[in-house]
Amino acid sequence: MQASAFLFFMPYNKPYLTIPQQRALLVSRGMAVPDPPKTDEYLQRIGYYRLSAYWFPFRKLSQLQDGSFKLGDDFKDGTEFKHATDLYAFDKGLRLLVLDAIERIEISVRTEVALTIGRHGPKAHRDPTKVDGRFTTIVQPKPQSMYTDWLNKLSEKEANSKEEFAVHFRYRYNGDQMPIWIAVELLDFGPLSIFLSGMKYADLQSIAASYGIARPHLVRSWIRSLSAIRNVCAHHSRLWNKPLIDQPALPAQGEIPEFDHIVATPSGNHRLYAALAIIRLLLKRINPRTKWADRLKAHVATFPGAPNIKISDMGFPTDWENLPLWN
């Protein structure tokens, strides 16, 4: 293992660059910078490395000796610094829209988990017989099951949370453990999705039914995928055109007719559009009067008109806004 790591070791040897030097580097690679002071302001405020994620589509491909291609350092003709900053601003607005929607979904799922598990008893979430057996199984080389790990993290939150309700509970019920309907409020979307995946089939089926979905596997997969997207948004990372790391499961053709256009698209669950479609469907079930789809349409209409980028890069189909899902 050490020899292999040493074999592929490559030291980082790029020098430190001042803001004017960073701008000069961009110009030397073919990027137009018509307003140097404003460019310097963006580089100072946002940072070269973060902005670099938004000029990837403007970089030229260079051909290697074996005939393959790699992304080069030089920019395509007509590339301007503003193209990257406009895309950055669009992505920021997109992240805020997605975070707002996922917050509503997260709160709804918390409530569904509390109601479903609470029927088995106030502390049924701490009873290993009330969760799926795979959740409590120790898989080597890990020393404990996912369930034990999840419980330990929950106990740590109960003991250390500064939330008023947690402080009050510790004071009033010193030494006791929180019932599920209180404990669930301490769970971020990640731990919430983990517990959801570890629930028994019948309980998960009950939650899926509350969203009008027949197969529990879909809800479990969707919430896990949305949890990963939430982390991207919360860390202010690039969301635009980012492949979905945790790809959501798709229904069968005709199972959820509003999704048929995604199901019929090769690798339709690899791009952000699939996640936005899931958000739209869940929000419709949570609040049929939601205007989130209208806000998304309005924002997508502001997509920058720069060369070499298009909204379909995120998986958006032609005339998507007129599909039944979005109306």
Brief characterization of the structure:
With 327 residues, the chain is mainly α.
Structure overview:
This protein has helices at residues 2-7, 19-28, 36-45, 48-52, 81-118, 146-160, 164-172, 180-183, 189-197, 201-210, 216-234, 260-263, 272-286, 292-300; strands at 59-63, 69-75. With 327 residues, the chain is mainly alpha-helical. The protein has two domains: 2-79, no CATH class; 90-326, no CATH class. A two-stranded antiparallel ribbon has the order 1-2. A hairpin with a 5-residue loop joins strand 1 (59-63) and strand 2. Helix 2 (19-28) packs across helix 3 (36-45), helix 5 packs across helix 10 (201-210) and helix 5 packs across helix 11. Residues 1-5 have low confidence and may be disordered.
What is the element layout, followed by pairings?
Blueprint lengths: L1 H6 L11 H10 L7 H10 L2 H5 L6 E5 L5 E7 L5 H38 L27 H15 L3 H9 L7 H4 L5 H9 L3 H10 L5 H19 L25 H4 L8 H15 L5 H9 L27
Antiparallel strand pairs: 1-2
Helix pairs in contact: 2-3, 5-10, 5-11, 5-13, 5-14, 9-11, 10-11
Instruction: Specify the helix fraction band.
Output: 40-55%
Estimated structural class:
mainly alpha
How many helices? The count is: 14
Count of distinct strands:
2
The first-to-last residue Cα distance is: 55 Å
- List SSEs in N-to-C order: HHHHEEHHHHHHHHHH
Average pLDDT rating: 94
Q: Given the C-alpha coordinates, what overall shape results?
A: globular
Rounded radius of gyration (Å): 24 Å
Which residue ranges are poorly predicted, with pLDDT under 50 across at least 5 consecutive positions?
1-5
Largest beta sheet: strand ordering = 1-2
What count of domains describes the coordinates? 2
